[in-house]
Amino acid sequence: MNSPERFAEPLYVSKPALPPLADYVALLDEVWASSTLTNLGPLHQRLEVAVGERIGRGATSLWSSGTAALVGAIQALRFQGSVVVTPFTFPATVHALAALGIEPVFADVDPETLTLDPASVATRIRADTTGVAATHVYGALCDTDGLAAIASDANLRVLYDGAHSFSRPGALFPDRDSVLGDITIFSFHATKLFHTAEGGAATTEDPELDRRLRLARNFGITAEDRVEGVGLNGKMSELHAAMGLSVLSLLDVELEQRRVLAAVYLEGLTDLPGLSVVAGAGENLPYFVVRIDPTEFGSTRDELHATLRAMNVMSRRYFFPLCADLDPYRHLPSARDLPVARRAADEVLALPFHTGMSPVDAARVASFVRWHRSGGRP
Ligand SMILES: *Cc1c(COP(=O)(O)O)cnc(C)c1O
Questions:
Q1: Which residue, among 158, 159, 160, 124, has the nearest Cα to 140 in the 3D structure?
Q2: Rounded mean pLDDT of the chain?
Q3: pLDDT per residue over 1-15, tens digit each?
Q4: From ligand 1's centre to the CA of 23, what distance in Å?
Q5: For the chain, N or C: smaller number of CB within 10 Å?
Q6: CA torsion angle for 203, 206, 210, 215 (degrees, to 10)?
Q7: What is the CA(185)–ligand 1 centre distance, in A?
Q8: Could you give the CA distance from residue 24 to residue 35 in angstroms, rounded to a whole number?
Q9: Atom 5 in ligand 1: residue holding the nearest Cα
Q10: Residue 282: which pLDDT band, with cuts at 50, 70 and 90?
Q11: Best mutation site among 141, 161, 243 for ligand 1, i.e. most ligand atoms within 8 A of its Cβ?
Q12: pLDDT in tens, 122-151
């Protein structure tokens, strides 16, 4: 079987949305005029309002990164002892707990949404457990009602890692009391759908938690001569806020173009036994992730990954390895028995999905997958 022609240049999974340079420079003019580079300046304030409006509920604070927001949230929630956490997430979710001296206790995930399974959480709660940390995966929401019920029974606080979730307000945050948990954090890293180069946010409906978050973000300082608690520097600079303001105005166009790419992928990848599109991918649009069942597909995910890489399609195994299998955590007793999450980590593959690519590119990627499925190898 002849090999199809590979891409001349590597096609990456994500590519940062870049605003027209003139838009960014116009905002930099304001920075120069105000001579304010950071410390919650005017652009920061504007972006904080705009991001909060897009999220549509609670109070939102901006941060220097999603990880900094996680650390601030864990401090604000006063987590200690152990916290039940999903293993199917980016390492930052687990690292933030461990860095603050809290033991991560892994629980398994739901086979459909790949988010933390409340039934598994219930079996992992210990006497020293103070919270639950769950990730909305590829934009698919956790079972927030299920987790809220368990948390209320066991007197735990719930932290959501919504790093993948900032895009579609109404659809993303349905009118459900439990949806934000106690705090939800977001990441605005350059690889995310909406970004500020580096940045993040934290949203809560509890005014006391919002106050503690803002303290944690700024060294715990409450007044010129008063430091009320332990805090770090989690502030977003004016230069990052300027990037965010100019990228935010492109977000709806970006989403529209991604909807077209998703439709092309869905059409090109139908009727392939053993391949499924993961929940969330078609709706919320932060990533386009497929799942490979090796028995039905006739090849492993890693073999497909190797074919795509050879064709210059830089697919990514995301999330892989499972956080429970990382060196700092693999020794934990809770790292062992996670069959659903471990299988997912072996089967998921993220395909290129960004507006730097055309619908024709997406159709070509899909045709490479079909070619591989029918036995083609580069
Ligand atoms: C990107 C990401 C983070 C880290 O966010 P940063 O802004 O890079 O610190 C945390 N959790 C998840 C699920 C992510 O995808």
A1: 160
A2: 94
A3: 678 999 999 999 999
A4: 26
A5: N
A6: -140
A7: 9
A8: 16
A9: 66
A10: low
A11: 161
A12: 999 999 999 999 999 988 889 999 999 999
* Beta-strand runs (E) in 153-280: 157-161, 183-187, 200-204, 221-223, 226-227, 275-277
Per the DSSP assignment, residues forming a β-bridge with 4 are: none
Closest by Cα among 66, 114, 109, 110 to 91? 66
| Cis omega (within 30 of 0) for bond into 319 | yes
Record the pTM: 0.96
Q: How far apart are CA 305 and CA 188, in angstroms?
A: 27
Tokens encoding 224: 């010129």
In degrees rounded to 5, what are phi and psi of residue 50?
-65, -45
Beta bridge partners of 187: 200
> From CA 257, how far away is CA 261, in angstroms rounded?
6
Helix (H, G, I), strand (E, B) or coil at 153: helix
Distance between CA atoms of 140 and 35, rounded to whole angstroms? 41
Q: How far apart are alpha carbons 54 and 75 in whole angstroms?
A: 25
